[in-house]
Amino acid sequence: MSSSSGSLPRYIIQRLLLVIPMMWILMTLVFLLLRVAPGDPVSAALGGKISPQALENSKEQLGLNKPLIEQYWDYLSSVPHLDFGTSFTDNQPIIDVIKENETITYSDDERFDNDVMLMTGELAKMLADLVEALGGEAKA
Fold this sequence. Notes:
This protein is mostly helical.
């Protein structure tokens, strides 16, 4: 094996550092997709059953009437604090909704089995990449 010492820690650090731009790109794409989608998010969430005044109040409360760049900054600065806003329909924090539904996903045996299979496949791929990075030959 002709790999230099410290290549595994360097590999792990590189992979972890690549997560930062990947997360930024994903967050930006999600933000832009939600903003360019046709229709108004408040009306869509409430089924159009809202008066024009209540619609404007909801937009003001959610910050949807701010300039796009300001909305983007608010979005990026709140995500690291796990502040994803509140639900349109029941005014509950989104993080609480995620926590509630997390246990439901894994109580369904079939879905859990699929998740385990996917995670096992990803783990095998990562191990193959690791072996290859260390100078061995991986056949995946």
